[in-house]
């Protein structure tokens, strides 16, 4: 097992290059099933989650070649002949469930174990299944598995009770070869959904409104292979923006889309961080005096839940009282107890966290409870007095490409150690 050691106190400087978005690449890999031909993903992030979902596709006889040198993934789904992926792999990664829509669409039958993922709260699949049912699939759940059968999928109007990202993506992919038109209302609007729609359209699909609250899918008879370069990872970019603020540093973040980062930029600016955008790069200046703020996580374009833990770490060192309200997941404050081990003054009241900023955190051994929590604890370690040891870093490796090396490039005293 690995742990990440952080010796706090260094000022950061220089440039960091952001990788492609994990949350964009995973559904795109799943969507490649629809083509039955060769698809190529350029500049893919070499992450554990990417490797796991690739293995899930391999378990149904897809051929996948991952070139870690060129960051290219070549996927050939022409020989898929199995309709039940390896359950142990599926349980490792919640995004594995995203292959259900494409498999039902192309083959008319599929069985999959209930998905796994970070333990950050209830993430039901009922909206996914509601969408499949509306398209004409017969869906049954039992003994830890979901099974779906459909002689033919027929387009329909589907209203999502909550703008679920995964459900929006899965229903979109199921609908691309359904007969007629499918309309998804109250759809999730995340940039990653727009990116998936672009990939589907490059394969010959007819998806209109991806990334808006109403998505229209006009069914086509078949799809072809495609080449695609995913969008930048807005959460990784936000994490490095917070790294500048928490260490009172000035750095340049390269590989961003300003539109995707608006809620993060707005909150950091409200705190007193100076951010200048120039094309696909931005300069983050956190050297000034920062002030406390209130944050409420919301579906996009609101403040992302995936940045909540990082902001909590930052606010722990900002004098005054801040309040974070988490509306997406009910169990996403587990990192607070780890930050309190570092001296943070955080009180949890239901779905709100009240943070009283202190002068400085102190390093100690802490546990990464989930992906974003692990990144947040590294950020806390950068600013803390002494040494911080972050364990269970396999969570972090699921969503950040070489995070310690990128921070080393900015001047942080951080390294990985096997124990």
Automatic annotation (TrEMBL):
Name the InterPro entries on file: Enolpyruvate_Tfrase_dom, Enolpyruvate_Tfrase_sf, MurA_subfamily, RNA3'P_cycl/enolpyr_Trfase_a/b, UDP_GlcNAc_COvinyl_MurA
Residues annotated to bind UDP-N-acetyl-alpha-D-glucosamine: 94, 123-127, 306, 328
Q: Which residues form the active site?
A: 118 (proton donor)
Q: Which Gene3D superfamilies match?
A: Enolpyruvate transferase domain (3.65.10.10)
Q: Catalyzes what?
A: phosphoenolpyruvate + UDP-N-acetyl-alpha-D-glucosamine = UDP-N-acetyl-3-O-(1-carboxyvinyl)-alpha-D-glucosamine + phosphate
**Annotated GO biological process:** cell division; cell wall organization; peptidoglycan biosynthetic process; regulation of cell shape; UDP-N-acetylgalactosamine biosynthetic process
Q: What UniProt keywords are attached to this protein's entry? A: Cell cycle, Cell division, Cell shape, Cell wall biogenesis/degradation, Cytoplasm, Peptidoglycan synthesis, Pyruvate, Transferase
Is Cell wall biogenesis/degradation tagged as a keyword?
Answer: yes
Q: In which pathway does it act?
A: Cell wall biogenesis; peptidoglycan biosynthesis
Entry keyword Glycoprotein: no
A cellular component term, taken from the record's GO annotations? cytoplasm
User: Main location per UniProt?
Assistant: cytoplasm
Function, in words: Cell wall formation. Adds enolpyruvyl to UDP-N-acetylglucosamine.
What is the official name of this protein in its record?
A: UDP-N-acetylglucosamine 1-carboxyvinyltransferase
Q: Which organism is it from?
A: Clostridium liquoris
* Gene that encodes the chain: murAA
């Amino acid at each position: 097992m690995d742990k990440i050691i952080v010796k706090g106190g260094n000022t950061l400087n220089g440039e960091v290059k952001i990788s492609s978005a994990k949350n964009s690449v995973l559904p795109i890999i799943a969507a490649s099933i629809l083509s039955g031909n060769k698809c190529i993903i350029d500049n893919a992030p070499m992450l554990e989650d990417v490797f796991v979902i690739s293995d899930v596709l391999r378990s149904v006889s897809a051929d996948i070649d991952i070139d870690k040198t060129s960051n290219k993934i070549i996927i050939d789904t022409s020989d898929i002949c199995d309709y039940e992926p390896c359950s142990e792999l599926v349980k490792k990664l919640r995004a594995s469930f995203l292959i259900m829509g494409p498999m039902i669409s192309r083959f008319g039958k599929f069985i999959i174990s209930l998905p796994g993922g970070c333990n950050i709260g209830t993430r039901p699949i009922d909206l996914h299944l509601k969408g499949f049912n509306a398209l004409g699939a017969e869906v049954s759940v039992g003994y830890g598995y979901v099974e779906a059968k459909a002689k033919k999928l027929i387009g329909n109007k589907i209203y999502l009770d909550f703008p679920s990202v995964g459900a929006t993506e899965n229903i979109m992919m199921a609908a691309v070869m359904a007969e007629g038109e499918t309309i998804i209302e109250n759809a999730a609007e995340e940039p990653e959904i727009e990116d998936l729609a672009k990939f589907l359209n490059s394969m010959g699909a007819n998806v209109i409104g991806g990334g808006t609250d109403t998505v229209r899918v006009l069914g086509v008879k078949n799809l072809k292979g495609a080449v695609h370069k995913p969008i930048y990872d807005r959460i990784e970019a936000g994490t490095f923006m917070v790294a500048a603020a928490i260490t009172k540093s000035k750095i340049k973040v390269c590989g961003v889309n300003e539109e995707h980062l608006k809620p993060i930029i707005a909150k950091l600016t409200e705190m007193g961080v100076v951010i200048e955008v120039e094309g696909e790069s931005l300069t983050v200046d956190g050297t000034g005096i920062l002030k406390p703020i209130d944050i409420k996580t919301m579906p996009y374009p609101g403040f992302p839940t995936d940045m909540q833990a990082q902001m909590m770490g930052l606010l722990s060192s900002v004098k005054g009282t801040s309040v974070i309200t988490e509306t997406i997941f009910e169990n996403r404050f587990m990192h607070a107890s780890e930050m309190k081990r570092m001296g943070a003054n955080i009180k949890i009241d239901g779905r709100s966290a009240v943070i009283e900023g202190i002068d400085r955190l102190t390093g100690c051994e802490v546990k990464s409870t989930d992906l974003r929590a692990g990144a947040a604890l590294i950020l806390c370690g950068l600013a803390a007095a002494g040494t911080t040891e972050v364990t269970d870093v396999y969570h972090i490796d699921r969503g950040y490409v070489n995070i310690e090396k990128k921070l080393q490039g900015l001047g942080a005293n951080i390294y990985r150690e096997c124990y």
